[in-house]
Amino acid sequence: MGGACVSETAVVNGVEQPYALGASVLGLMPDFVFRETGLSDHLKTFVPTHPKLVHFGAEEDPAWIYRDPKELDRELAAKWGERGAVEAFRNDEARVVSYLQQGYRSATPPSLPEAEQQLGKDLVRLWITGSAVDLFDHYLTAERTRMYMAMTITESGPVSLHEPYSAFTIPLMDSGSVFDG
């Protein structure tokens, strides 16, 4: 409750940068819970429909983070020199997210055997039991793309990107948002 109500300031390269100390996004609440509990009748939410912007300090222009995987693939190739498989990354992520959301809907906790049956061993190894570093190495080539994708993990808690199951943070966080992930 409250989210980003508390902030701190860091000085980076002589420039003050404010940042939130708490959560900044209402997440891990599937859409059906939001609707079926009646919360959607009592709360007004704001979700921008335009793409997000990501800016690294040394760059003049920010990169647009499009929801559409094809547009995102083109943008990251143009801005950050990404030559990997951004579209495949997002499409495979969507498959894992869909699996998790089905479990939320049916009140069935995920299990590795069930995940392997529905997703296959390769996706389970990459997206659930694997490390974030291995996941990024599989799909991505540009350091900026990897840094952007890693933000979901580093913002979620103190875990090494090299640890087993650290990749699972990405679909887990994207599976429950009231904003369709």
Q: What can be said about this structure in brief?
A:
By secondary structure, the protein is mainly alpha-helical. It has helices at residues 31-36, 39-42, 69-80, 86-106, 112-119, 121-129, 132-139, 143-156, 169-175; strands spanning 7-12, 15-20, 52-54, 63-65. It is globular, with a radius of gyration of 17 Å.
What report would you give on this structure?
Strand 3 (52-54) and strand 4 form a beta hairpin. The chain is globular, with a radius of gyration of 17 Å. With 181 residues, it is mainly alpha-helical. The two termini are 20 Å apart. The longest helix is centred in the middle third of the chain and has 21 residues, at 86-106. Helix content is 49%, strand content 10%. The protein contains nine helices and four strands; from the N terminus they run E-E-H-H-E-E-H-H-H-H-H-H-H. The chain folds into two domains: 1-47, no CATH class; 83-175, no CATH class.
